[in-house]
Design goal:
The protein is 20% helix and 40% strand. The chain is built from 2 helices and 10 strands.
Length: 178
């Protein structure tokens, strides 16, 4: 369902489209082209933050860490991309992108972790959420990708790396003056 913007002077001529199947709100430009989209989760979190209501706790089932590494990915339509990931956990990763793909987009990926940058690890995933611009959670725009297919040994390697990074962070914190 599409709703035209009429009363906002800055955005008159644009419209908001509600995609209930994908649980997204899409901003449509005056030329009819999509400008960007937000998940319902993100919209609700912003409303709750503005009202200073508590935001629900993390829903990830796997811990993650901020870690920079290379990632290559392609869509089912054959579009290929190469980027940088800014975080990873056993359940997925955050891929930095100035033009995040739509929520629900399926991806075939390969990535190289910092401990062996020459080895490319395969996985498949789906875009679970997007961050169209840098915010206080993600310092870069991009998309959160949930793994849908990943070899058990690759997932275990990720989990081991997450534990190692967390241990390093704990050790570094212990050295700081109180």
């Amino acid at each position: 369902m599409r709703y035209p913007v009429a009363s906002s002077l800055r955005h008159r001529g644009k419209s908001l489209e509600v995609d209930a199947d994908r649980e997204m709100v899409i901003l449509i430009g005056s030329d009819g082209e999509p400008i960007g989209s937000l998940s319902w989760d993100f919209v609700m979190d912003q409303i709750m933050a503005a009202r200073k209501m508590p935001v629900p706790k993390e829903t990830r089932s796997e811990p993650r860490v901020a870690l920079t590494f290379r990632v290559r990915y392609r869509t089912p339509e054959g579009q290929s991309y190469e980027s940088r990931a800014g975080g990873i956990g056993g359940g997925g990763m955050f891929i930095e992108s100035l033009s995040p793909l739509s929520i629900g987009t399926r991806l075939a990926m390969e990535f190289s972790l910092p401990d062996n940058i020459e080895q490319w690890l395969p996985a498949k995933g789906v875009v679970a959420w997007i961050c169209p611009k840098a915010d206080h959670y993600t310092f870069s725009p991009g998309m959160g990708v949930q793994f849908t297919e990943i070899a058990p040994e690759v997932r275990e390697r990720i989990r081991d790396m997450v534990k190692a990074v967390q241990k390093q962070d704990e050790n570094a914190q212990a050295l700081l003056p109180a």
